[in-house]
Amino acid sequence: MSASFAQLSQWTMPKWLKMESSSVSTFDRSYLILALSMYMIGLVMVASSSMPVAERLFDNPFHFVVRHMIYICLSLVIAAAALQIPMSRWHQYSGNLLLLGIVLLVVVLLIGRNVNGSTRWIVVGPITVQAAEPAKLFFFCYLSAYLVRRRDEVMENIKGFAKPLVVFGVLGGLLLMQPDLGTIIVMFVTTFGLLFLAGAKLWQFIAIAGVGISLLSMLAYFSPYRWARVTGFLDPWKDPFGSGYQLTQSLMAYGRGESFGQGLGNSVQKLEYLPEAHTDFVMAVLAEEFGFVGISIILLLSMVLVFKALLLGRKAVNQEKYFEGFFAYAIGIWFCFQAAVNIGASAGIVPTKGLTMPLISYGGSSMIIMTIAVVILIRIDHEIRLQSIQATSRTNGTKKKVKKVKQSNVVEGEND
């Protein structure tokens, strides 16, 4: 019986997930540990923060928890499929993926569902897709492929530097019509970070970054609701029941949390004082229930994931796997900035932007896309390790052949 089970496990397990005879793993298990840890923390916090509002809206306190569990399971199924896609395919179809992202952004403007004044969701039966999430991933994939093709041009003249900004401008225009300024800012920062790492000249980087920041500032200034967010962020206590309401409630949650928090389930702000407590402001509830220690743990997990992505990008570039390296860089910058903005917004460090906390906040589209991004990192790491193992095997094989030839020559000499 045990022998049959062993044979079955060997048959069902993908080859690249097995340990080699030399005890060298062909993928980095720490990515799985980090992602699953953030999944579990997110599930607990979504459960804690969403029950009051779910009870009122749906007469079922577990409404959002069950949905979040379904999103996690669906993310894992999609991740298992995405894990089988070689990076060469991502590279080959990067242009098609960008086109798909643009189509999704156009479709959401035509038939999307409007929530709180924003049209960001495509509804297909029970499935709701936030078009901006896959658009981000597909754009970063395209940008990584572009930098492989045009890296010299990017490094030498302004034309190569400006071309991807034109594509970004198209996506930014479509996102602005939703409107979704938060996603534009994430893409803006990631794009410029990636161009800088690809070798763009510093003066080009500073000049166009200055123009971009000026345009974003103008968008905020000339839009009443965006400007209200900015002024509310600068002095939320000036209008605590108006433009500063959400931030003041969030700051109260942070204040009550102190060092070790009030304990799981003991948050007061989640009792419908703090809007969007299980989505954009889940970190405020976590801070209230687990305090500074809880926030520090989340920051540490996110920081480790980001550093691993950036180090993986450098490793890939050093081995001349430029597409994989740039893609890993993009994912690392994306994770870092989005996590920083989410936590910063809830803590009153930056204006509210409506961005989810990667792998923790409630939201199916964000959960699935962020999971695919982690899977891409695992795939890049796997291909680099596999290449190294194959190179070592060929080297060892060559050494064995040389050794056999030398031994045969010695035997022939003795016979003579």
Q: What do these coordinates show?
A:
The structure is a single chain. With 416 residues, this protein is mostly helical. It has one domain. The protein is built from 15 helices and three strands. A three-stranded antiparallel β-sheet has the order 1-2-3. Helix 3 runs parallel beside helix 15 (364-415). The longest helix is centred in the C-terminal third of the chain and has 52 residues, at 364-415. The model is unreliable at 1-23 (pLDDT under 50).
Short characterization:
With 416 residues, this protein is mostly helical. The chain contains 15 helices and three strands. Strand 1 (113-115) and strand 2 (118-124) form a beta hairpin.
Helical percentage: over 70%
What's the count of strands?
3
> What spatial form do the alpha-carbon principal axes imply?
globular
Q: How many helices in DSSP terms?
A: 15
Kindly report how far apart the N and C termini lie: 58 Å
List the helices and strands and how they pair.
Blueprint: H1 2-12, H2 29-58, H3 63-82, H4 87-92, H5 94-111, E1 113-115, E2 118-124, E3 127-130, H6 132-149, H7 151-156, H8 158-176, H9 181-197, H10 202-221, H11 224-234, H12 245-257, H13 282-318, H14 322-346, H15 364-415
Antiparallel strand pairs: 1-2, 2-3
